[in-house]
Amino acid sequence: MSAPLFDWSLIDWADIGTATLDTLTMLGASLTFTVLLGLPLGVLLYLLGPRRLLANQPAYATLSFVINALRSMPFVILLIVLIPVTVKLVGTSIGVAGAIPPLVVGAAPFFARLVESALREVDLGIVEATQAMGATTWQIVSRALLPEALPGLLAATTVTAVTLVSYTAMSGVIGGGGLGDLAIRYGYQRFQTEVMVITVLALLAVVQILQMAGDWLVRRATRK
Amino acid sequence: MIELHHLNKTYQVDGRQVTALQDIQLQIPAGQIFGIIGRSGAGKSTLLRTLNLLERPDQGRVLIDGIDATALDQAGLRTLRQQIGMVFQHFNLLAHRTVAANIRFALELAGELDASAMAARVAELLALVGLTEQAQQYPAQLSGGQKQRVGIARALANQPKLLLCDEATSALDPQTTQAILQLLLDINERLGLTIVLITHEMAVVRAICDRVAVIDGGSIVEQGTVVDVFLHPQHAASRNMVAEDGHAAVLDLAGKLHSVAGKLLRLTFVDAATYEPVIAEVGQQLASPINILQGSVGRIKDRPYGQLIVGLQGDVSAAQAAFASRGVRCEALAA
């Protein structure tokens, strides 16, 4: 009899548990801050755009450039470049806490772009009608644009969450922990294929659950 | 009462100057239904939007009940807009809100009523437009006519003195158009509010408007009562619009009438004259048969009218005098 392909007894399930928890912590915290930062940024980008409520070509071009610059930076580089900032913000540049600021800086510009395009999907006629009812710009954004764009915003959040899951895998570079880190350290560097298989399955489960939850929320919010 | 004084507006399109409005002078009496008719691109949409400053004119003044809207600050402008309802061609309802919540939206933005007062007002408006049953449905579940009823209810929510209609029936089928026009007429009569509507259809103007202005190339080329403009259009743009409508007797038989012997006359009857057997009487009086070649009879809003092109062999001036004495306008046409 040949040896079994995988020897599951080698796996330290406590490690897997901790890594899963680390991934979920990084994901939850970074997604929260990404939305808190990216949503206003995306709204601002939309409002400054051509023919929009606060149309301002130089301001739009500048903001757009900054967002593109951040988005074009490979995440691994961002992770290292941001170390001084990270230390200032959370007191450390390593571990789960150290991973969160670079994750947010990496994902917020991406999310802002998605917010901008979700808002552009809202019929300009609705903005005009709301304006004609005597609404302030703030009321137009908070009462008409954001609620009307809700399905698109939820879809954008789902895409961002999934992207963040793959970003967390790279945070192993700075000792960020999590499932991706575990897969690289055990599966790749120590040839424990079993650990890699389990971590990949766990990541797949996380992504799948996120996507299903996101789709369900989008369906519930859609009235068209 | 709305007065527009010397409104000008130009746009920059691909580096070129495009004139949208040119020296617009207009007075719109309170309580009337005022139509602005023009082709697409004539500037009617821009003109309508200057009334609530969704489009700010480059020059000129917009006086609404004596207040210069162009001079208002942001807060003043918002207050003014809350007193001006607006209805749109594509309804522009919020998809995530129910019918009732869409109507309530206007009240929420104004922020003057508490929750129970808003609910009462919404119920009142739903009854006015006949949508009480649909209160909890979403716009996606409604027909076009029902959506426009929601749009109208929403526009009336804050009890405006002025209602602006931007091609309000252009996206609707003919039957629904009639129902919506009837609703607008009803609202005008019951609430006494002024309605300004823009349209490219003469039929809409004919159905409900008291006065009409014809806009062409950014200028008002003609204005007056609908009866006058419709039956005796002066400007080429107005004549074309009336001709396309096909309800007035404009002479579109040119070249086909040379075989008709005698003189061509256009007779216009309005109100009482339409009920008299005028043609027969005049024919008898002149002892000359009158040949009806083309014509239409109908109603302009609530006024009956008739307009005929007739052929007459005999004395034209005697015929004109005979028609004039019976309250019928008679013009000799160059055949």
Automatic annotation (TrEMBL), chain A:
<feature type="transmembrane region" description="Helical">
    <location>
        <begin position="89"/>
        <end position="112"/>
    </location>
</feature>
<feature type="transmembrane region" description="Helical">
    <location>
        <begin position="60"/>
        <end position="83"/>
    </location>
</feature>
<feature type="transmembrane region" description="Helical">
    <location>
        <begin position="27"/>
        <end position="48"/>
    </location>
</feature>
<feature type="domain" description="ABC transmembrane type-1">
    <location>
        <begin position="20"/>
        <end position="213"/>
    </location>
</feature>
<dbReference type="InterPro" id="IPR051322">
    <property type="entry name" value="AA_ABC_Transporter_Permease"/>
</dbReference>
<keyword id="KW-1003">Cell membrane</keyword>
<keyword id="KW-0813">Transport</keyword>
<feature type="transmembrane region" description="Helical">
    <location>
        <begin position="153"/>
        <end position="175"/>
    </location>
</feature>
<keyword id="KW-1133">Transmembrane helix</keyword>
<dbReference type="InterPro" id="IPR035906">
    <property type="entry name" value="MetI-like_sf"/>
</dbReference>
<feature type="transmembrane region" description="Helical">
    <location>
        <begin position="195"/>
        <end position="218"/>
    </location>
</feature>
<protein>
    <submittedName>
        <fullName>Methionine ABC transporter permease</fullName>
    </submittedName>
</protein>
<keyword id="KW-0472">Membrane</keyword>
<keyword id="KW-0812">Transmembrane</keyword>
<dbReference type="Pfam" id="PF00528">
    <property type="entry name" value="BPD_transp_1"/>
</dbReference>
<dbReference type="InterPro" id="IPR000515">
    <property type="entry name" value="MetI-like"/>
</dbReference>
<comment type="similarity">
    <text>Belongs to the binding-protein-dependent transport system permease family.</text>
</comment>
From TrEMBL, chain B:
<dbReference type="InterPro" id="IPR018449">
    <property type="entry name" value="NIL_domain"/>
</dbReference>
<keyword id="KW-0472">Membrane</keyword>
<keyword id="KW-0029">Amino-acid transport</keyword>
<dbReference type="InterPro" id="IPR027417">
    <property type="entry name" value="P-loop_NTPase"/>
</dbReference>
<feature type="domain" description="ABC transporter">
    <location>
        <begin position="2"/>
        <end position="242"/>
    </location>
</feature>
<dbReference type="InterPro" id="IPR003439">
    <property type="entry name" value="ABC_transporter-like_ATP-bd"/>
</dbReference>
<dbReference type="Pfam" id="PF00005">
    <property type="entry name" value="ABC_tran"/>
</dbReference>
<dbReference type="InterPro" id="IPR017871">
    <property type="entry name" value="ABC_transporter-like_CS"/>
</dbReference>
<keyword id="KW-0067">ATP-binding</keyword>
<keyword id="KW-0547">Nucleotide-binding</keyword>
<dbReference type="InterPro" id="IPR045865">
    <property type="entry name" value="ACT-like_dom_sf"/>
</dbReference>
<dbReference type="GO" id="GO:0005524">
    <property type="term" value="F:ATP binding"/>
</dbReference>
<dbReference type="Pfam" id="PF09383">
    <property type="entry name" value="NIL"/>
</dbReference>
<keyword id="KW-1003">Cell membrane</keyword>
<dbReference type="InterPro" id="IPR041701">
    <property type="entry name" value="MetN_ABC"/>
</dbReference>
<protein>
    <submittedName>
        <fullName>Methionine import ATP-binding protein MetN</fullName>
    </submittedName>
</protein>
<keyword id="KW-1278">Translocase</keyword>
<dbReference type="InterPro" id="IPR003593">
    <property type="entry name" value="AAA+_ATPase"/>
</dbReference>
<keyword id="KW-0813">Transport</keyword>
<dbReference type="InterPro" id="IPR050086">
    <property type="entry name" value="MetN_ABC_transporter-like"/>
</dbReference>
